[in-house]
Amino acid sequence: MHPMNKLCLILFAFVLIASTCLPALVTAQVAAPASSQAAPASAAPTSTTPAPAAPSATASASVPAPAPSGPTSNGQVVEEIITRVNNQIITQSEYDRSKDQLRDEVKQQNPKDPDAVYAEREKDVLRDLVDQQLLLDKGKDLGITGDTELIKQLDQMRKDMKLDSLEDLEKEAQKQGISWGDFKQTQLNQIITRRVISEEVSAHLSVTKDEEQKFYDQHKSEMEQPEFIRLSEILVAPKAAAPTAAPATTDPAAPAGATPATAPAASPVIDEASLSAAEAKANDLLKQIRAGASFDDIAKKNSDGPSAADGGALGMFKRGQLAKELEDRTFAMKSGDVTDVIRTKQGYVILKVEDHQQAGIPPMKDVLPKLQDALYFQKLQPALRAYLTKLREDAYIKYAPGYVDTGASPNQTQPVETASAKENDAKKLKKKHKKMGFL
After folding, report:
1. φ/ψ of residue 8, rounded to 5
2. 3-state secondary structure of 56
3. Residue 83: in which H helix or E strand, if any?
4. Which residue in 11, 79, 102, 347 is deepest, having the highest Cβ count within 10 Å?
5. Burial class of residue 50, CB neighbours in 10 A (0-12, 13-18, 19+)
6. What is residue 176's predicted lDDT score, i.e. its pLDDT?
C-alpha cells in the first residue's frame, strides 16, 4: 500500500473531529492495534498472549444527544442555522454536539490538563464542520458513492467486535443512542471524505530520495533503539480427559431427607497419551513449516493460542521480557527463523522470529516506510489545508454573526440571500429535525 493511503486515515482525525459517530465502533474500525509488550506463555509462568491493549481514548466517550435551541409555544423546536455551505446547512445543535464530543475526547487523551487542550482545539470546531461538508460536496462532484466500501466497512466492524450479524451491530449503535441510519451515514461520510483526500490531495504528493536521506540524517538520534525481536507462536495444547466426579456424600449427622453434600469439582486430567498426541501434532506442524508451508496459515488453522486469528502474532519483546531459556534461544536467531518444538506449561509451542533488530540506529532501509510516512504527513497537512481553502473560494458559504471559521479565506464569495434561499433552508432544517426526531 502506498504510504499516502495509510496517511489519509491519520489526517482524518484532524479533519472530522466534528463527525457524529459511535466512538467504540469507530475505534474498532480506525485504530490500529498496538504491539504488545507482554511476555508470551512460553516465558515460563507468564502467558504467551500479550496483555490486551488499553481501551482507546474515545472508546468510553458518550455521544451527546442533539441539543435543540428550545421549543416554541406550540411544542415545535426552534433551531438556529449557523452556517450555509453551498446547498447544505450546519445547525447550532450539530455545532454544540461536536464541541461536546471534543470535550469528551480531550478528557480521555489529556486527563492532566483537558481544559487547555480543549480551549486550543475548540476554536476549530466550525472549521472542521465546514471542511467535512466541502469534502462531501466534492465527493458528489467526483461521483464517489462509497456504497460498496460501506458494506465492507460495516462487516469488518462486525467481525472486529465479534458480533454475529449486522443486526447485532445495529443494536450496539442504538445502545449509544444513535439511530442505525445516522450511524451508517456517518460511516459513509468518512469513506467519501477519505477517498476525496486520497484522490485530490495525496495522489499529487511525492517524496524524493534526497528528501528521504536528509530526513534520515536529521533524525538519526531519534531512531536509536534497544535490541528487540517480534515473535509469532503456534501453541498445541494437550486435550484434557474428562474428569471422573467423586460421588456425593451425606453427613451421617444430617437429618433424614437432607440433600447430600456436593463433591468438589474435579480438575481436568491431562494424561501421557494427551501429551504425546499434542507433541506429535506440534512436530507435524513444524515439519510442514520447514517444508515451505506458511507459518501464518498454519497458526490460524491449528494454534490453540488466543493469537491464532492474527497468525500467532505476539508482538515485540526486548531483552529481559522473556524467560531466560527463551531469550537465549530466540535472540540468537535471525529474522524468519523458526524454533524447534518447545515444551511449556500450556503445551507445545513453535516460535517464529518475525523480526530481529539490533541495538543502535537501524539502517535506512529498515525504517524507510516509517520515514516516508513522516515525510508525506509533513507535506499532506499544508497541502490539504490549501486544497480546502480553494474549495472555500469556489463555494458559497454564509456564517451567522458571532461564528468564526478559522479556515476561512479572504477570497470567499459571500452569497446573496434571497427569499427562495431562505425557503430552501427552512425545508432542509425541517428535514434534519425529522431525521433527529425533533418534529
Report:
1. -60, -35
2. coil
3. strand 81-85
4. 347
5. buried
6. 85
Q: 272-290 vs 295-302: helix axis angle to the nearest 10?
A: 150
Number of structural domains found in the chain: 2
In angstroms, the Cα distances linking 18 to 39, 79, 115, 286 are 39, 19, 18, 51
Asked whether the beta carbons of 16 and 127 are under 8 A apart, the reply is no
Answer yes or no: are the C-beta atoms of 83 and 397 closer than 8 Å.
yes
Rounded CA-CA distance 79/92 in Å is 7
Of 357, 376, 401, the position where a domain reaches its end is 357
Identify the domain containing residue 200 by its residue range. Answer: 3-34+66-211+364-436
Residue 358 φ/ψ, nearest 5 degrees: -75, 160
Distance CA 342, CA 350 (A): 6
Question: Looking at residue 157, which CATH number applies to its domain?
Answer: 1.10.4030.10
Instruction: Identify which of 366, 365, 367, 342 has the alpha carbon closest to the alpha carbon of residue 352.
Output: 342
Sign of the alpha-carbon torsion through 136, 142, 145, 148? negative
Q: Which residues lie closer than 8 Å to 145 by C-beta, 6 or more apart?
A: 192
Do 233 and 317 belong to one domain? yes
Alpha helices in 207-337 (DSSP H): 209-218, 220-223, 272-290, 295-302, 324-330
Phi/psi of residue 307, each to 5°?
-90, 10
Q: For residue 205, with 0-12 CB atoms within 10 Å meaning exposed, 13-18 middle and 19 or more buried, which class applies?
A: middle
H helix intervals, 314-413:
324-330, 364-394
pLDDT value at residue 366: 86
Of 97-106, 147-156, 238-247, the one with minimum mean pLDDT is 238-247
DSSP-derived secondary structure for 17-39: TT----HHHHHHHHPPPPPP-SP
Within 13 A of 202's CA, how many CA atoms are on the CB side?
Answer: 23
CB 314 within 8 A of CB 34: no
